[in-house]
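Dear colleagues,

For the upcoming journal club I promised to circulate an example of a predicted protein-ligand complex. I picked one with magnesium ion because it came up in last month's discussion. The inputs are reproduced below in full, followed by the predicted structure.
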Amino acid sequence: MDILKVEHLSKTYEDGTKALENLNFSVKKGEILGFLGPNGAGKSTAISIISTLIKANTGSITYFNNTKLSTKQIKKNMGIVPQDIALYEDISA
Ligand SMILES: Nc1ncnc2c1ncn2[C@@H]1O[C@H](COP(=O)(O)OP(=O)(O)O)[C@@H](O)[C@H]1O
Ligand SMILES: [Mg+2]
């Protein structure tokens, strides 16, 4: 079962920067995907779109093999560990 299916994802930022053009991939349940590319390749843009933080111009994403999930349900079942973690040293976890 595909837990994530990304189809024809494209993103051009407002300043005209084309960050993604027709990105397609899927991840099966239990599979670990390495998402590699040089600086500026579009990794963060793709992750931001997948995690619902920004909108793609075109394309679709199917989460958990279910086309009927709300954004709230998708977010509830997704975890993101960012590259840079910002923690306040004087505030406890
Ligand atoms: N908010 C933004 N506005 C305009 N261009 C952006 C923005 N964020 C990223 N970009 C550009 O989009 C392209 C892809 O960037 P990004 O997704 O951050 O790549 P990566 O994470 O692979 O380094 C780069 O050319 C970058 O400069
Ligand atoms: Mg990045």
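Two points we might discuss: The first strand starts at residue 2 and ends at 12. The longest helix spans residues 43-50.

See you all on Thursday,
B. R.
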